[in-house]
Amino acid sequence: MTETLTRTHDPAVLVLEDGRRYEGRAYGARGRTLGELVFATGMTGYQETLTDPSYAGQIVMMTAPHIGNTGMNDEDMESSRIWVAGFVVRDPSRVVSNFRSLRSLEDDLEEAGIVGICGVDTRAITRHIRSAGAMRAGVFSGDAASLTHGEQLELVLGGAEMEGLNLSGTVSTADSYTLPAEGERIGSVAVLDLGVKTSTLRYLAERGFDVHVVPQTITAEEVLESAPDALFFSNGPGDPAASDRHVDLLRTTLREGLPYFGICFGNQLLGRALGFGTYKLPFGHRGINQPVLDRATGRVEITAHNHGFAVDAPIDRVSESSEGFGRVEVSHYDLNDDVVEGLNCLDIPAFSVQYHPESAAGPHDANYLFDRFREMVIANRSEHATTEGDDA
């Protein structure tokens, strides 16, 4: 057990765009940061949260009061770096106690230049965000803490709105790379990296896929030329309404009969490709304890979420795709607010879920979806082989 006294004597302030101010102590790097303030309800898994590219552009506030007690390690990273714009906690742990811990949380925040704040009433702030909605905010410490109230608020109001923001280029890989299949190889999958997490790639490889991760700049023609057995769209940050190019790519590949699986952002983009709209949730779903109903089985799954946007589709009936892809059903929905959490195409090999079935640091209720994807790809390949044999 290593004692690591936090360096939290310097003043800091969290400023919301509606003018509310919460004074606390600096945590992590000193300076100023701007972003959309959101809250995450997980009792654990802060390292996975911090390194999830879907949180790019957001100041993340943990609702669990005591954060940092297990430190940081190199095994639970969901990407190569910390992506959050800022970090808000109530009581940072003064002691790191875990056999895998290599560093303290504050060490990594400081090393990554992440400006944070602690010692604030996160419960009160969460209740306010639940009522008023997620909003732009800023954390100010060090020299930035001495700015006037008006100067700080002006900076916050000058920050970017998440609505209409495309962040895929910020988080995607610049170059393609491949993870080889583990065990029996069944084929290859092209993974469009919109902010993909390491655990997602690992689960796909474990299902027998050669996982070809490609940058978000790839074209539909380039995808089809590589002849993958399936296509996967990852999670990612930003507004799906600002990703027309990825929607067009998906429509083209779906029309070519390529099997598709999407999660989170990939669910929203499938919704748009099928002809549905998307909209911004008041405060989103973020955490590892969201109850979702699987309509096919009637089973309630506890799932991991990180999304501020959702698909606008009817949950009470089968719909017809306005883009010519046949019948579509909402396969899953959130029991807290009836938000669409999954889409299933009945006439083409494509489905998606809004939550994160790889659920690193969370429940594993939805892990079967990777098996479902594997089975869909195998069935689609068998069907094509049979059709080609009949034609011959």
Can you describe this structure?
- By secondary structure, the chain is an alpha/beta fold.
- It has 2 domains: 2-157, Glucose Oxidase, domain 1 (3-Layer(bba) Sandwich); 168-391, Class I glutamine amidotransferase (GATase) domain (Rossmann fold, 3-Layer(aba) Sandwich).
- It is 25% helix and 32% strand.
- It is built from 10 helices and 22 strands.
- The protein has helices at 46-50, 105-111, 122-132, 149-157, 168-171, 198-206, 220-225, 244-255, 265-274, 368-391; strands spanning 2-3, 11-16, 21-28, 32-40, 58-62, 66-67, 86-88, 91-92, 95-96, 115-118, 135-141, 177-179, 187-192, 209-214, 230-233, 260-263, 277-294, 299-312, 319-320, 327-334, 340-345, 350-353.
- Helix 8 (244-255) packs across helix 9.
- It is globular, with a radius of gyration of 22 Å.
- The N and C termini lie far apart (69 Å).
- Mean pLDDT is 93; it is low at 1-6.
Number of strands: 22
Question: Which stretches of 5+ consecutive residues score pLDDT under 50?
Answer: 1-6
Q: Give the helix proportion (percent range).
A: 10-25%
Kindly state the mean pLDDT as a whole number?
A: 93
Give Rg in angstroms. Answer: 22 Å
Please summarize the sheet with the most strands: 11 strands, mixed
Q: Find the CATH topology of the largest domain.
A: Rossmann fold
Total helical elements: 10
CATH class of the largest domain: Alpha Beta
Euclidean distance between termini CA atoms: 69 Å
Please report which band the strand proportion falls in: under 5%, 5-15%, 15-25%, 25-35%, 35-45% or over 45%.
25-35%
Cα shape: globular
Judging by the overall fold, what is the CATH architecture of the largest domain?
Answer: 3-Layer(aba) Sandwich
Structural class comes to alpha/beta
CATH superfamily of the largest domain: Class I glutamine amidotransferase (GATase) domain
